[in-house]
Amino acid sequence: MRRLAVRPMVLVTMLVACASAIVVCLPASAGASVTVPTVTGTWSCCGSGGASTQTWTITESGGSLSGTASNPEPFSPISGSISGTSVEIVTGPYIGSTYSATFVGTISTNGESMSGTWSSNDKPPQTGTWSATRTSGSPTVTIETAQEKEAKEKEAKAKLNRPGNVGGLIA
Fold it and tell me: Residue 60: which of 31, 77, 90, 81 has the closest Cα?
């Protein structure tokens, strides 16, 4: 029987490559929380790229956006959506008008800024670029995985069912 001679360095390289391939293939949701940017908060927007200076106060819920645009007084409702780092923010219709503007762009991964292009419903439409900087609010939100929620629920049930626990009070 013939033995193959494998050099130690070649063997180490092969093992590292195999281990790396396994780690890369594991899903990100295999138990770890995920931190993602959020647009909930107050933003200072525009002033260049054709759009007037404005402050956006935005609330995000389940990927949908709502809020108010002001300069300095409120002049428009805000609606829109976020998916990952892609955002669409609609200001309008402006109070006393049918004018609205749609801002499409990307929020930074740290949640502190966003930018993109905008267009209005004017005929012909106004267009330009925009950027916004967060002035208040948490830039990211942490989302628990299903496995983490399940583990927390099991832990809570175990505490309630342990000996000495009377009437739901943890002793």
Answer: 81
Count how many residues are written for the chain. Answer: 171
| Spatial distance between the Cα atoms of 95 and 69, rounded to a whole number of angstroms | 11
pTM: 0.66
Please tell me the predicted confidence (pLDDT) of residue 6.
45
Average of per-residue pLDDT across 115-119: 97
pLDDT band at 82, cuts 50/70/90?
A: very high
58 to 9, 86, 159: CA distances (angstroms): 56, 15, 39
What are residue 74's DSSP bridge partners?
A: 70
Place of tokens 């419903």: 121
For the chain, which residues make up each domain, given as ranges?
Answer: 34-143
H/E run at residue 45: strand 41-45
Q: Which fold has domain 34-143?
A: Lipocalin (2.40.128)
